[in-house]
Amino acid sequence: MPKSVTLDRFDHALLAQVQVNNQLPARELAERVGLSESAVLRRLRRLRQDGIITADISVVHPAVLGAPLTMHVLVSLEREGSAALDAFTRKLRNRPEVRQAWYVTGDADFVLLLRLASMEAYEAFTRDVFHDDPNVRAFRTIIAMREVVGAGDAKPMGVVG
Prior knowledge:
The protein has 161 residues and is an alpha+beta fold. Helices cover 36% and strands 19% of the residues. Strand 2 (98-103) and strand 3 form a beta hairpin. Pfam families: AsnC_trans_reg (PF01037), HTH_24 (PF13412).
C-alpha cells in the first residue's frame, strides 16, 4: 500500500497517460499534461518511489510464451489462520503459472489467474498445489474461451482530476 500522498491534477493527468501507455517519451507526456519534460520525469520518479506506480511492465501475448490457456480458479481453504494463509501465499508466489492472485471475501478464499500450456499442465498444477495440500478444501475452475477486453484495451482507472 502506498504511503499517503497528495496528488494534484498534473499527477492525475500523468497517471492517466501511463496507465494506457507507459512507453510515451517524456517530451510527449509533457505536451499532453502541460508540464516541462524535467517536471514530468521528477513526478514520475516520485510516483514510483511513493508506491503509486507499482510496476512498469510489458504485457506479452500468452500464446507466444507457450501458455495459451487462461483459467480463473476459486480456492477455498480449510483454515485461514495467519500461518496457513502465509504458507498458501508462498506456494502461489513460487508457481510461474500463477499470474495474479487475490485473497478475497465470499464463498472462496482466493481467486487465481493462471496461464498454462495445456489441460495436462493444469492437471499437474492441481495435483501439486491443490490435491497435495490438506488445507485446500475445494477449488472451482473457470476456463476462458477468449479474451474480450485485455490489458492492451486499458482505460485509465481511478484517476480523477
